[in-house]
From TrEMBL:
UniProt feature coiled coil, ranges: none
GO MF terms, alphabetically ordered: aldehyde-lyase activity
Organism annotation: Leuconostoc fallax
All residue ranges annotated as the Xylulose 5-phosphate/Fructose 6-phosphate phosphoketolase N-terminal domain in the record: 6-376
Domain Xylulose 5-phosphate/Fructose 6-phosphate phosphoketolase C-terminal: 600-809
Name of the protein: Xylulose 5-phosphate/Fructose 6-phosphate phosphoketolase N-terminal domain-containing protein
Length: 813
């Protein structure tokens, strides 16, 4: 029977810690000869990297915590995974995965001997190797770490609906100063100990950032205690006056962490067996404050006598050792030998048997926990038939609004489908948002499930909140919602984050980091794929009448289009049926970032179920009922992508057709925007990009295109430029202008409206000799008069003109 509390066992934990520190320090500087003192082989210049790159400051504190997490796993037989919040801490998980064997399992060339250790050292933070963060290349990692602020959000998102998992979440004290991190401490108000797992947050107070002290580290224990108790946590501390009394640190850490695990288990037992914490009482989850010095155990002073250990100077490379300057080599050797590597490794580079014995086994290793590699259950969602929720579109209803106003709201149509998805997947689907789910018309989802909210419910003032809801949107933080979704998705489940379009930009850097994770993960043969990250942008630029200019920004479309297109899908469905079809496809695809732009306001409906299905599957379609020449040569092409652009483009081409019925044109509706893009290389091919021949079938070469677009116009221009399109393209999109005004005036501001589109089409047609100039001039004058009337009525009466509000689709001439 192993005594996990004995002095002898803690000495083994200390040795494990020393082994990880030895490897972590060595891989910054060396590319060969890693066990120089054990093998009695002096370090030569060629063993040292030309330019060592990496970070030391946060490493030894995290490796200390990781070693104790291993002990907790062994003692309590828990399932635990590691979240490394402090930036640039890649060595922490790399070295632990190497010592417990998982790294070699995933990378067989990194053998557990001197030769394999040399390869490991060389590849760290080295061209063609691995980064200094906890990237997707690292076994056990599901959180990159260098993107400060999101460790807790990711940790909580990962344990939602994972009742048997504990996230060992280390939060950096520099990270803790970020807005997202401060908001994420409120996650305890949403975690249900009955059905969800647990997060053990450890605030790693090492004292310093890059060159400044950190705020939390200068707060007293009393101040920190009040802070966390005010948030509802039960704080406890790991600290010691003598930073080099390692035995005292180990004894205290074991005691404090043991109590934390026992408290977590007691909370869960009370919730699961006694029904506790379901009445508005928030469990006092433990939080650990660990004062572990920056650069702990490393070089103590530089050549000028300035402190390195326990100062900001330990942040990056703590010694100026490099291949061209070996002056500090003796100090480096003294540092490395302080870990007593001969007690840790055999002469052949293998780990001592006594240390192998204390590593958790199999999936219990944090480096091998399936939760960190696509999840325990990697099956797809069970999906209802989206067609059961579709609107009935035919020649009589197309382009008109239904009597039931809710049928005209695309998001309301989608909500009924999402409600069914939630019913079919009660533990594998969640909806996230920043208090906008009701505003975004997801009423059908609320009929099936309330919000998850662990605080007291005060009826009748509160509405649709419960400890066991599937919607989490009660915190007004985009960072929090996105972080929860990423953690949920990276552990194999499926979710959606819906937000007002302009405020998705708040988290575009988070989305970028997730994209980078997907790209790195796809390059690792041992990594499983992930469900796609689903984002819905609604309350969009062209429907912001009451909020106006401040709530306009469709720029996420451009931001994501700049990424590798085989990991990104941008969908702009124009009505409820195409939104349903696209959402099913988004749920079915894996390893993507899906951005859906959808309307929540009453809008005309256009496409039959069959048309919507083709649009979703093919990404775009020539619409025969809106084309006078769906095949063959045309005089002009009309195209649109997005809800309001489709309305205005169809209305614009209808105006042109009524005045000039002999003009031959086709209309192309684009739902999957990046099918137009051409940026693939043979190495990074995206099967969704149209070939040049396919593109020419939709957009006839040498023929002008009027393009109604939801986003910034230069994105459309870039597509046609990449294609070397010989005709002219005239995008009518968002032009960064607006005000608090009427619904249709928002479109006029950007000249997206039907009258500007029709006017430009006729100008182009007359310039090309397709229509009579005199008739064209008369038409253009009519368009200008209508726009002048629009301006007069909106500014004087505060309403839209009938030419907008009363228009309905009728067949073309």
């Amino acid at each position: 029977m192993v005594d996990y509390d004995s002095k002898e066992y803690l000495e083994l934990v200390d040795k494990w810690w020393r082994a990880t520190n030895y490897l972590s320090a060595g891989m910054i500087f060396l590319k060969s000869n890693p066990l120089f003192s054990v093998t009695n082989t002096p370090i030569k210049a060629e063993d040292v990297k030309v330019k060592p790159i990496g970070h030391w400051g946060t490493i030894s504190g995290q490796t200390f915590l990781y070693a104790h997490a291993n002990r907790l796993i062994n003692k309590y037989d828990v399932n635990m995974f590691y979240i490394g919040g402090p930036g640039h801490g890649g060595q922490v998980m790399v070295t632990n995965a190497y010592l417990d064997g998982e790294y070699t399992d995933d990378y067989p060339e990194i053998t557990q001997d001197v030769e394999g250790m040399s390869r490991l050292f060389k590849r760290f933070s080295f061209p063609g190797g691995i980064g200094s963060h906890m990237t997707a290349q690292t076994p056990g990692s599901l959180h990159e770490g260098g993107e400060l602020g999101y460790s807790l959000s990711h940790a909580f998102g990962a344990v939602f609906d994972n009742p048997d998992q504990i996230a060992f979440a280390v939060v950096g004290d520099g990270e803790s100063e970020t807005g997202p991190s401060m908001a994420s401490w409120h996650s305890n108000k949403f975690l249900n100990p009955k059905n969800d797992g647990a997060v053990l947050p450890i605030l790693d107070l090492n004292g310093f950032k890059i060159s400044n002290p950190t705020i939390f580290s200068r707060m007293s224990d009393e101040e920190i205690t009040k802070f966390f108790e005010g948030l509802g946590y039960s704080p406890r501390f790991i600290e010691n006056d003598d930073i080099h009394d390692y035995a005292a640190y180990h004894e205290l850490a074991a005691k404090v962490l043991d109590q934390a695990i026992e408290d977590i288990q007691a909370i869960q037992k009370d919730a699961r067996e006694n029904g506790k914490y379901q009445d508005g009482t928030i469990a006092a989850w433990p939080v650990i404050i660990a004062r572990l010095p920056k650069g702990w155990g490393g070089p103590t002073h530089d050549a000028d006598g300035n402190p390195i250990e326990n100062s900001f100077r330990a942040h990056q490379v703590p010694l100026p050792l490099e291949q061209g300057d070996l002056s500090t080599l003796p100090k480096f050797e003294e540092w490395m030998n302080s870990y007593k590597p001969e007690e840790l490794f055999n002469a052949d580079g293998s780990l001592k048997d006594e240390l192998k014995a204390i590593a958790p086994k199999g999936d219990k290793r944090m480096s091998a926990n399936p939760i960190t590699n696509g999840g325990l259950d990697r099956s797809d969602l069970k999906l209802p038939n989206w067609k059961d929720f579709a609107n009935d579109i035919n020649d009589d209803t197309r382009g008109k609004e239904f009597a039931d106003n809710k049928q005209n709201m695309d998001m309301a149509t989608l909500s009924n489908y999402l409600g069914a998805v939630s019913e079919l997947n009660p533990t594998r689907f969640r909806f996230f948002g920043p208090d906008e789910t009701m505003s975004n018309r997801l009423w059908g989802l609320f009929k099936v499930t309330p919000r998850q909210w662990m605080e007291e419910v005060k009826e009748p003032n509160d509405q649709l909140v419960s400890p066991e809801g599937r919607i989490i949107d009660s915190q007004l933080s985009e960072h929090q919602a996105e972080g929860w979704l990423e953690g949920y998705t990276l552990t194999g489940r499926v979710g959606i984050f819906a937000s007002y379009e302009s405020f998705l930009r708040v988290v575009d850097s988070m989305i970028t980091q997730h994209f980078k994770w997907l790209r790195h993960a796809s390059e690792q043969s041992w990594r499983h794929d992930y469900p796609s990250l689903n984002l819905i942008a609604t309350s969009t630029a062209f429907q912001q009448d009451h909020n106006g200019y401040t709530h306009q920004d469709p720029g996420l479309l451009t931001h994501l289009a700049e990424k590798k297109s085989n990991f990104v899908r941008e969908y702009l469905p124009a009505d409820g049926n195409s939104l349903l079809a696209v959402q099913e496809r988004a749920f079915s695809e894996r390893h993507k970032v899906n951005l859906l732009v959808a309307s929540k306001q009453p809008r005309q409906q256009w496409f039959t179920v069959e048309e919507a299905e083709e649009l979703a599957n093919e990404g775009l379609k020539i619409i025969d009922w809106a084309s006078t020449a769906p095949e063959g040569d045309v005089d002009i092409t009309f195209a649109s992508a997005g809800t309001e652009p489709t309305i205005e483009t169809l209305a614009g081409l209808w105006l042109v057709n009524q005045a000039f019925p002999d003009v031959k044109f086709r209309y192309v509706n684009i739902v999957e925007l990046l099918r137009l893009q051409k940026k693939s290389t043979p190495k990074m091919n995206d099967e969704r990009e149209l070939t040049d021949a396919e593109f020419d079938k939709f957009f006839q070469p040498d023929t002008p295109v009027i393009f109604g677009f939801h986003g910034f116009e230069d994105l459309v221009e870039s597509f046609f430029f990449e294609r070397k399109f010989r005709g002219d393209v005239y995008p009518h999109g968002y032009r960064e202008d607006g005000d608090i005004t009427t619904t249709y005036d928002m479109r006029v501001y950007s000249e997206l409206d039907r009258f500007h589109q029709a006017k430009q089409a006729v100008e182009v047609l007359s310039a090309n000799g397709v229509v009579d100039q005199a008739k064209a001039d008369l038409f253009i004058e009519q368009m200008d008069k209508t726009l002048a009337k629009h301006f007069d009525v909106t500014r004087n009466e505060g309403r839209d003109i009938e030419e907008f509000t009363k228009w309905e689709w009728s067949p073309l001439k």
